[in-house]
Write a structure and sequence with these properties.
Layout (H helix, E strand, L loop, with lengths): L1 H30 L19 H6 L4 H10 L2 E5 L5 E5 L2 H10 L4 E2 L2 H11 L8 H11 L5 H5 L2 H21 L4 E5 H18 L12 H6 L2 H6 L4 H13 L2 H4 L8 H29 L7 H9 L10 H15 L1 H16 L1 H20 L14 H13 L5 E6 L3 E10 L5 E7 L4 E5 H4 L3 H4 L40 H18 E4 L7 E6 L1 E6 L10 E6 L3
Parallel strand pairs: 2-8
Antiparallel strand pairs: 1-2, 3-5, 4-12, 5-8, 6-7, 9-12, 10-11
Helix pairs in contact: 8-9, 8-22, 9-16, 9-17, 14-15, 14-16, 15-16, 17-19, 17-22
This protein binds protoporphyrin IX containing FE.
The site of protoporphyrin IX containing FE has 25 residues, from helix 9, helix 16, helix 17 and helix 22.
Length: 546
């Protein structure tokens, strides 16, 4: 009885102490934060701040409203009144993401989710670990290496088009309605399997393929339209719990976490098998050019700076599928949607593709060579315009790992009447970049930046502030965490697009005119009124008679 009394007193005191610490933290972050004088919208709720709107509303709409009211940079609220700096300012994005190295790192929630989903991969690694992961992986993603993969992408594209042609041949009407994201994701998974791992997932033909089914709708299942409770819990755990406890998130019995656990289990099993096979080939002196061969070779290295553990090698495979599959398949999906909405753009694109194919044939080539890809001015304009307009990863987040001073491209009028050209932030301050709004800034992309117009790229003037690896678009991130697969993605994107437009014509359906752009880490299409069906964008497909 006496022991019980002491125990309950100790527990009560510990509980009270924890509550006081949190209370002080909340009050501090609410009232005494370095961002308190930055203007911004009033939060719809204190406990969730703007996170509910940011994660649940149609993609890009609210950011535009905030930009129009507050200018390039504004303050939003996280949970329990926490101030967050939100921006579309190229100078801030350049400073935080591109030039300040590890002064700004990924936010804890994303780091933990990346670990749950992929294991100890490059998507999770930070600081020295991250440098090591990146230096091992980068050589596999150069221009030469990515270009060398063109035949692999072409094979996957031709295979998918072959399946569609067979189905069209059976269709009495001569046309088919296909749900594009589901169709294309299988082909991009096969492409990544061959290109990155020299492995055939067989996802195009095998509808029961376990890995393909897990990766189907991955982002929608784990990040799409999260409940308010989920947003609060994730943000609370990752902001106020020590990282050592956050790893236990994997035991939360939610649908999303269960899916992540399953995905990690299945893909790690496949990765282990692949690594074992690669090791055998390496021992036999047969080296591959694919990413996995490189990782396996680094695994055997004696040099600590270029060595990955077995677990890290398996995790990189998961990372590439997570980072490289749905991003590319969704980009292709949005492109076909825009082409269906704008038949005149589709016809102009097809004319260029047919012309380049003809020229290739005249040179005795069966396909347009990758060396000609950049010469396809209109095709690349359509690609750039689509990823500008339908920014696949609409928002990126960082947290300051030490105090810093952030420069602005446009001065801000603070709530206490000062005009400032830089914002001092303390360690722990979160910064959200709206890539979606940056990609629509009229001063960079022109007065019609809110409309889809590939022609803008035919006379584009370079902006003064340079950002990211691809045409100053806020697409592939920037700096230490910039996408390593961007060349891979662009060549894959163009190869698939050429094949699709050469073989088929795409038209709108009733459902595709009700498509809503939804945030789920990657921006995904949902049909209004059919949100429970997951990612959907049904288009009418007809075969071209070239
Ligand atoms: C259209 C396709 C793609 C888009 C839009 C895209 C976008 C991005 C973005 C925005 C980032 C930076 C995230 C951040 O700032 O935290 C990123 C990182 C990354 N991407 Fe991509 N990506 C694409 C395709 C690919 C492909 C095909 C691969 C690999 C095969 C890939 C692998 C990665 C990896 C490993 C990282 C993490 C890099 C690091 O943290 O150092 N991505 N990607």
């Amino acid at each position: 009885m006496y022991t019980y009394g002491i125990l309950s007193t100790v527990l009560l005191s510990a509980g009270t102490l924890v509550a006081i610490v949190y209370l002080v933290k909340f009050i501090y972050s609410y009232w005494f934060n370095c961002l308190s004088n930055i203007p911004g919208p009033s939060p719809p709720s204190w406990w969730l701040g703007h996170l509910g709107i940011l994660y649940r509303s149609p993609a890009g709409v609210i950011e535009r409203q905030w930009y129009e009211k507050f200018g390039h940079t504004w303050r939003v609220k996280g949970i329990c009144g926490k101030n967050i700096l939100m921006t579309a300012d190229p100078k801030i994005i350049q400073f935080v993401w591109q030039t300040s190295g590890y002064t700004f790192e990924r936010v804890p929630i994303n780091v933990q989710l990346a670990k749950l989903l992929t294991g100890p991969s490059i998507l999770w690694a930070q600081h020295e670990d991250h440098k090591r992961h990146r230096s091992v992986m980068l050589p596999a993603f150069g221009t030469k290496e990515s270009r060398a993969l063109t035949p692999v992408f072409r094979t996957a594209a031709i295979k998918l088009c072959g399946v569609w042609k067979d189905r069209l041949a059976m269709a009495k009407s001569g046309c088919l309605v296909l749900n594009m994201p589901a169709e294309i994701a299988r082909a991009t998974l096969d492409a990544i399997g061959h290109a990155a791992f020299d492995y055939d997932f067989g996802a195009i033909e095998d509808k029961d393929n376990e890995l393909a089914n897990i990766f189907q709708n991955l982002f929608m299942t784990i990040r799409g339209l999260p409940s308010k409770r989920k947003i609060f819990a994730e943000s609370f755990f990752t902001n106020y719990f020590p990282a050592s406890l956050v790893q236990y998130m994997k035991y939360i019995p939610s649908k999303g976490i269960k899916h992540m656990n399953k995905s990690l289990e299945v893909s790690t099993k496949v990765a282990q098998d692949l690594v074992a096979r690669k090791n055998e080939r390496l021992i036999m002196g047969k080296e591959g050019r694919d990413v996995m061969s490189l990782l396996v070779k680094s695994n055997a290295s004696e040099i600590e700076q270029t060595k990955l553990s077995d677990e890290e090698v398996y995790a990189q495979m998961n990372a590439m599928m997570v980072a490289g599959n749905e991003t590319t398949s969704t980009t292709l999906t949005w492109t076909l949607w825009e082409l269906a909405r704008h038949p005149e753009i589709q016809a102009k694109l097809r004319a260029e593709i047919v012309q380049f194919s003809r020229e290739a044939q005249e040179k005795g080539l069966s396909e347009i060579p990758v060396e000609d890809y950049e010469k396809m001015v209109y095709t690349t304009a359509v690609m750039k315009e689509t990823i500008r307009f339908h920014t696949p990863i609409m928002m990126s987040t960082r947290v300051a790992t030490r105090d810093a001073i952030i420069p602005l491209s446009k001065p801000i009028q603070t709530t206490d009447g000062q005009t400032i050209t830089q914002i001092p932030v303390t360690k722990g301050t979160s910064v959200f970049a709206s890539y979606a709004q940056y990609n629509r800034l009229p001063e960079i992309w022109g007065p019609d930046s809110y409309s889809y117009n590939p022609d803008r790229w035919l006379g584009m003037v370079e902006p003064s502030i340079k950002l990211g690896p691809y045409n100053n678009l806020g697409i592939f991130g920037a700096g230490i965490h910039a996408c390593i697969g961007w060349r891979f993605a662009i060549i894959e994107y163009q190869t698939f697009l050429i094949q699709f437009i050469n073989d088929f014509t795409f038209e709108m359906t009733e459902a595709s005119s009700k498509v809503r752009r939804t945030r789920a880490s990657v921006m995904l299409p949902l049909v209004e009124g059919e949100e429970d069906q997951g990612c959907q964008l049904p288009l009418l497909v007809k075969r071209n008679r070239n």
